[in-house]
Write a structure and sequence with these properties.
- The protein is mostly helical and 125 residues long.
- The protein has a single domain, classed as Cytochrome Bc1 Complex, Chain D, domain 2.
- It contains 6 helices and no strands.
- Helix 3 crosses helix 6.
- The chain is globular.
- The termini are far apart.
- The structure holds heme C.
- Heme C (HEC) binds next to helix 3, helix 5 and helix 6.
- The site of heme C has 26 residues, from helix 3, helix 5 and helix 6.
């Protein structure tokens, strides 16, 4: 038996976690998480870069990285402008290391990777 007091605390903690997730409005749905875990760019060359550099963070719901296919999260980023996003990848931002770990990527490749990740998971539905 869990004493009532403790149960209350657990409920509060769950509530706070739930609320903060709502606040940022960026909690990806299970469908988006499945999409992110399984989707790679159509171009084999781009897919190779994505798989060796970006996928480790952007395809997992456990990281702070905006999830591939999470349209709402990406729209907030895209609002900064593509040039800013590319610069932030090159310089690194928050939990993302410089170049998103792709040291030999050029600007055009970064743009294509960003466009790919920003395609909403339900775009084809
Ligand atoms: C080690 C993990 C990691 C890897 C690898 C990684 N990212 Fe990220 N990325 C993140 C995290 C975490 C954020 C959120 C950073 C923040 O806003 O605090 C992020 C954010 C971004 C953003 C948004 C930047 C902004 O200004 O809002 C872009 C664009 C991006 N990543 C592109 C890429 C690309 C392209 C690759 C592969 C070449 C890549 N990332 C690889 C972790 C990673």
């Amino acid at each position: 038996m869990i004493p009532d007091k403790r149960l209350g605390r657990i409920t509060m903690a769950a509530l706070i976690i739930g609320l903060s997730a709502c606040d940022s409005n960026t909690t990806p749905s299970p469908a988006i998480q499945t999409y992110a875990a399984n989707t790679i760019p159509a171009s084999p060359a781009l897919a190779a870069i994505y798989q060796r550099s970006c996928q480790a963070c952007h395809a997992r719901g456990t990281s702070d990285a905006p999830l591939t296919g999470h349209g709402a999260a990406w729209q907030q980023r895209l609002d900064k402008g593509m040039d800013t996003l590319v610069n932030n990848v090159v310089a690194g931002i928050g939990g993302m290391p410089p170049y998103g770990l792709c040291m030999d990527c050029n600007t055009e490749e970064f743009r294509q990777l960003i466009r790919f990740m920003a395609i909403p998971a339900d775009a084809g539905e």
